Amino acid sequence: MSAKVTKLGERTLIGLFLVSSVLLVLYGPVWLMVIFSIFWILMATGEFYNLLKKYGISLPKLIMLVINGLFPILYYLTKSFYPYLFLTFVIFIYALAFQKKFFSFVPHFLFSMFYLGFLPSHLLYLKDWIWSQDWSLSKRFLIALYPLGFTWINDTGGYIVGSLIGKHYLAPQISPRKTYEGFIAGVIFGVGFSIIYLGRVFNFTTSKIIVTALFLSCGALVGDLLESGFKREAGVKDSSSLLGAHGGFLDRIDSLIITVPLFYYLLKLFLT
Predict the structure, then answer these.
(1) Torsion of CA 109, 107, 173, 236, to 10 degrees
(2) Is the distance from CB of 212 to CB of 265 less than 8 angstroms?
(3) What does the pLDDT read at residue 114?
(4) Torsion angle in degrees (nearest 10) through CA of 35, 220, 195, 147
């Protein structure tokens, strides 16, 4: 019993710290988000490197960390995606000059850049774009918070319902606990949350809100299954144990890696 209590206490304390940190970063200045993004990207990239290594794919860790860590910095300095083309060019030159297995190295490294450099940086892109709008501080904060809140509601609702009544497995070879019942429940919870949340924050039509919720629900599933596939291939339960009972840094953002970019582009589509 004491071990369970200790584990619960650890999980609660780490959870409170993570939530407090995210809220502070979302409410604070953009440069704080840059620092936060770099830190999380570096930690998740390190975990991803270890996963790849477990099933025989060896990439230069230091170069992975440097390249992925540059994504938030370059965007903050230039407000443009064009420097990312230069990073891609650098990797091609490096591979041609130093990698014997060019056609094996390049796709794996480019995927790492996309998956753990470009996609996670969208929380910074989202915050930067929102902070450039002529809205109140509270409205900016609530909009930036939405994809995180949605992902949590979608995941929690799906997990609870799937655990209780889930019988039809969605992807048993990748994630044995994912069920169609849980996914549908997550969609319903997400749509309900979005109608209440976005309906108050924005004057969105119901159709736009439902479209947003459906896209984000599918994105959350894809992000979850994608990371689960990597972990299953590597034969591990969590990407690391750095966050105790919460697993690793990559575990905490698996769905957000997809839902935040989707919301960023949908928001710009609907409002511009």
Answers:
(1) -20
(2) no
(3) 96
(4) 0
- Per-residue pLDDT reduced to its tens digit, 162-215: 888 878 888 888 887 889 999 999 999 999 999 999 988 887 889 999 999 999
105: containing domain: 2-271
Which of helix, strand or coil describes residue 176? strand
Mean pLDDT of 126-132: 94
Question: Are the C-beta atoms of residues 187 and 225 closer than 8 Å to each other?
Answer: no
pLDDT digits (tens, 9 = 90+) for 101-120: 888 899 999 999 999 999 99
Contacts of 194 (CB under 8 A, 6+ apart): 146, 150, 209, 210, 212, 213, 216
Both tokens of 176, joined, read: 């044995």
Q: Phi and psi of 242, rounded to 5°?
A: -65, -25
**95 bridge partner residues:** none
pLDDT digits (tens, 9 = 90+) for 54-69: 888 889 999 999 999 9
What's the mean pLDDT when you consider all of the chain?
91
Count of domains forming the chain: 1
Supply 66's token pair: 């440097």
Instruction: Give the closest residue to 158 by CA, choosing from 209, 221, 210.
Output: 221
Q: Which residue has the tokens 């995927």?
A: 111
Q: Which amino acid is at 139?
A: K
The torsion angles phi and psi of 169, rounded to 5 degrees, stand at: -75, 135
pLDDT at 267: 94
| Inter-helix orientation angle 61-78/102-113, to 10° | 40
